[in-house]
Amino acid sequence: MHILFLTDNFPPEVNAPASRTFEHCREWAEANHQITVITCAPNFPNGRVFEGYQNKFFQTEEMAGIHVIRVWSYITANEGFVKRIIDYISFLPPAIIASLFVRKPDIVIGTSPQFFTVCGAYIVSRLKRIPFVFELRDIWPESIKAVGAMQDSISIKLLEKIEEFLYQKASVIVSVTHSFKRRLIERGVCADKIHVVTNGVDLSRFNLRPKTPDLLEKFGLEGYFVAGYIGTHGMAHHLETILETAAIAKENKDRLRILLLGNGAHKMALMERAKQMALDNVLFIDSVPKEQVVNYWSLLDVSIIHLKKTELFTAVIPSKLFECMAMGLPVLHGVAGESAQIVRDNKVGIVFEPENAEQLYRGLTTLQQQPELYQSYRDNCLKCASNFDRSQLAARMLEILEQQIIQLAQKTGTKNI
β-strand 256-261 against 349-351: which pairing, if any? Predict the structure, then answer.
């Protein structure tokens, strides 16, 4: 089977969409399927092309058995709604043109969060007369409103019309959460074509390991209880809550350090606020290459997962939750809904109310002061991680894709596709 995958995030970018797409495609390639990915020059989240790449109209590379085609797009930092929309839309025409030169794909996948990439996959499916798969990672544009980036308007209503059109036209929808599936069914999307393949973790990369000695020394963390957030610093994450928690810890003279690793549209504002609050117990670190991330995870005693307090995010499962499990890191989980239930059911950490710094602080001190409870959470993390093995989840999604090919063959009477 030849799978064509359209995505605007791909390694060496290190965000969740890039990791999921790469790890699935790598598994499919290892299963002897032909994989072509059309993406853009890596630039997320700072809007600067990564070293070794250029924002050219067309360039190719091979990565873990995957044929990668990179096309030109308008590049901007992950900030400013209008510029980001232009960024998203600009990927469409060159991606569609590039797809015309991809020989005989059997199926095309477009992945969100934003759905202009999915629009491209739909157009390609019509041009190539092949099934179109919508991989649903976010309910967009509803998430734009949820973080306050844009209010109801004619533009939002137009985007919602496009969203509904794509749901109806997709041969199959692969959702990353059961909550997303329920929401789509409530909106009239056929339940039979919605499948759930959650996020997971690459167990070959993420596993229990001692704290990296040189980094421990470099950042002066020896002897401290270290809590950390690793990921995008955006409006949706409301990391001000973590800064407020750090202020409480400082006032109480706790032997605690908080590490914030990553980049994003809100990072400079967070750094400025931490400076104003004189938070000498908070350490900001820029994003690091994918292969180095686990060394920074190893510095943590607990991981903080947090999103803005809004109804939409009760349907979200942050992928870093599964990375924490694999690393044996108990979580302090500030996201309500489906992901919080995973934490409770698997007993891998403490759930706190989003945007509640007092509750987060109590969770931190509980894990710091109760070693037996801490160890039980750690043991549960390691035990449960195998339930979210990325290779098994990739195999599940591959079965869904193969079923679509079989159904198309039965409809057309084609024996081999």
Answer: unpaired
